[in-house]
Amino acid sequence: MTLISAPGNIFLFGEHAVVYGKTGIIAAIGMKTYCEIEKREDSLINVSSEGYGRFELKIEELREISEYKERMDLIKDLISTYFKKFEIEEGINLKISSDIPKDSGGMSSSTAVLCSVLNALNKVFQKVDKKDYYNFLIPFQRKIHGGSASGVELFSSTFGGYNKVKINPIEYKNLGKLELPILIADTGIEANTAETVSYVRKGYELDKRSYEEIFDEIEKLVLEGEKAIKSKDFIKLGNLMFENHNLLAKELGVSHPKLNKIVRVAMENGAYGAKLSGGGKGGVAIILVDKKKEEKIIEKLDFCKIYKTEIGVSTD
């Protein structure tokens, strides 16, 4: 079997605002979803996953799934669409595993699943060019998130690295190879991105002018953040991250007491900056650390799980 992977992601800046056409900065992380794939000589689709379960269907039994009620529905839907669209008649064996926590949120576990499965299918059938991944996968991303999703994470899981992205129209820029000293702090609280996206949508519909102003403020932080990333001005970058967190927490209301505690404790113990990453109301926070103070920060954050992983990884 051939082994293929795709990385998860963190949001450095811009979550939620990207849904409304603003810019975001997303980075691929060293925690990945892996697929092992091989062709079969019959028409069976045999899929097993550590976190999603398993299924076996004949190609002619594959159907589009309009609403995902089980974890495996996402994978069934993607495979069904791929096989039907390209009229594939050969079956596959596919094994999926991941070192991204599937329940925490904020590290784009479902995005990594989509990209790794598509990578695996392309390894054997070669039907979708990487430049077309976003358009191919965004319908599935929107089903996951209840109809509203920017899908900007797809760019980092597809191309790796640090990426500045906006949609409507799509503008994408890879920011190159960078090294940022970032820790990921997991609250252990399951985050439902569909719910937080819907929550923000309701607020937006009630007061569009105020929300547009908030999204504009977030975009300003994104653009200043890009400059700070390139110049490796960690003090400025950290301050911008903290400002972004406060807008998400106080203005959009998508934080959680434990996320706020992580940010506060990290800042009190010498972090350059910290913020929630992703949908919020649980999931993870990211912390930009002074390497000299990293161990102290980790020690003080003993109430959550800390991941030390490479940020901005390549997909080559």
Notes on the structure:
With 316 residues, this protein is of the alpha+beta class. It is built from nine helices and eleven strands. The protein has helices spanning 72-85, 109-125, 133-144, 153-159, 193-206, 208-231, 234-251, 257-268, 294-300; strands spanning 2-13, 24-39, 44-49, 53-58, 92-98, 162-166, 171-174, 182-186, 273-277, 284-288, 305-307. The strands form two sheets. Strands 1, 2, 3, 4, 5, 6 and 7 form a seven-stranded mixed sheet that branches. A four-stranded antiparallel sheet has the order 9-10-8-11.
Query: What's the order of the H and E elements?
Result: EEEEHEHHHEEEHHHHEEHE
What is the percentage of strand-forming residues? 15-25%
Number of DSSP-assigned strands: 11
User: What is the annotated CATH architecture of the largest domain?
Assistant: 2-Layer Sandwich
**What's the number of helices?**
9
CATH class of the largest domain: Alpha Beta
**What's the overall average pLDDT, rounded?**
94
How many domains comprise the coordinates?
Answer: 2
What is the CATH topology of the largest domain?
Ribosomal Protein S5, domain 2
Structural class: alpha+beta
Low-confidence stretches: none
Helix content: 25-40%
How many angstroms separate the termini?
19 Å
**Main beta sheet strand tally, sense and closure:** 7 strands, mixed
